[in-house]
Amino acid sequence: xxxxxxxxxxxxxxxxxxxxxxxxxxxxxxxxxxxxxxxxxxxxxxxxxxxxxxxxxxxxxxxxxxxxxxxxxxxxxxxxxxxxxxxxxxxxxxxxxxxxxxxxxxxxxx
Amino acid sequence: xxxxxxxxxxxxxxxxxxxxxxxxxxxxxxxxxxxxxxxxxxxxxxxxxxxxxxxxxxxxxxxxxxxxxxxxxxxxxxxxxxxxxxxxxxxxxxxxxxxxxxxxxxxxxxxxxx
Lengths: 110, 114
Known about the structure:
heterodimer; A: about 110 residues; mainly beta; 5-stranded antiparallel sheet; 11 strands; B: about 110 residues; 7-stranded mixed sheet; about 0% helix; globular
């Protein structure tokens, strides 16, 4: 059974700090990796996707992928209170359906 | 690009009633997905379409659930004889084949079964 594991949190960081969110997955055939942000009562919003080992940066966000360790992470630099949300990690074997983790709640305090 | 839309946004029904939800994908997207999300959980895959063909169904999808996408555009998800355990947020997502297959979600339909 394909599994995606995330620490449920909450992860609390002060404003301006770096938030580090982690995710592990069980299916070695996974090829696509996504991070979604979800505010309470809202639907998931895509933040980033990554396919290759290494780092991918987009503004304040950096996704990191290590396929050998079956590990993907999301770094948020200069965290803002508006970043407070649940962050969902999702993986897919390719062009197919997503398997989500339960999400990590991030709280950024002013 | 108006994004993925879903209707209704909220639905309250009594146990045993049938409900139907609609999803309109992003216009150029030929893939459409249905997920279900309960409190404290990530979205769980239910089914997906490529154009009008239903290519995959989750084992979570009981016989009471049926989905259609008759013209390869909008899709409907019907739940027959609703049960309290069906209470959840039903999410629709769409993606474009041949791209990174990045899925974009609609606002969801929140179902409450009394």
